[in-house]
Amino acid sequence: MKTRMLLWTILSCALVSGCAHESDIEIRNPLAVHAIDANQIVKPHDYAENARGLPPGSMADQAQLVSMAPAQVCFGVSLHELDPIDLRSVEAELSAPKVDATDDAKVWAEQPTFKQYDGLVPEQRETGTETVCSSRDSDGVCQGWQTRPTYATVYVHGPVKVYETRGRLCFPNHGLATPATEQVSLKLVMRREGGAAVRVGYGLYGGFGGGCKKVVFRWGLSTAGGATQTASASSGPSS
Which residues of 109-127 are buried (b: 16+ CB within 10 A; e: fewer)? Predict the structure, then answer.
C-alpha cells in the first residue's frame, strides 16, 4: 500500500502540463480587454484538514493573476502546509495550450507565518508483538526467530501549526500569452527532504520519505462576454 502511494506521489509530481485542461475559473482575456477581472482561485485541501482536525479552508492554497502584459505575466500566491514552504525553491511553470511553457520566474517571497489550531497530532503507540525470522541459511530457510514489538500511529488532540507562505511570481511573456490565448496555467511543485509534513503524511508533501506538493491553477480566457466563475473557484482579493 505504501509502495503504491509513494509511486503515485512521484508520478503526480512528475506530470507536465501541456494540453488544455478544465479551467478553475473563466475571465476575459486581459490582453484583449485591457483589464483584469476578479480571478482568485482557491484550491481546498479537505482531506488534510479533516485528517488533522483543522477548520475548513485553513489549508487551502490560493492564486491570483495580478497582471498580464506583452512583456510579463505575474501572479500572487498564498500556500499553506504543515511545514514552512520556501517559495524561492519552488519549481514554477507558466503554460498555455499549443505553446512552449516557461519556468523562468522571478520570485518575491514573504517570510512564512503560521496559525496554531487545536487539532490532531500523531502519536506512536505499541500495539503488541510479532515473531519474525532473524536469520536464514543459504537456501533461504529460516534458522532463527525473534519477537519484536509492533506499533501504530494514532491521532490525539494537540496543537497543530499551519504555515502560510505568500509571494509574487512574474514570468517573461515572450508570446506565450496573447489576446487570442484561451487558457493559462500556473504549476507549482515544492519538493521536500523531510519535516513535519513529510513525517506525518497528511500534508500534500506525502508521507513516505521525500515527497512533493504540486498545485496547478488554471485560468480560462475569453475574448468576448463577461467573466463566468466555476464552482471550484473563488473571486476577490487574496486574504
Answer: beebebeebebbebeeeee
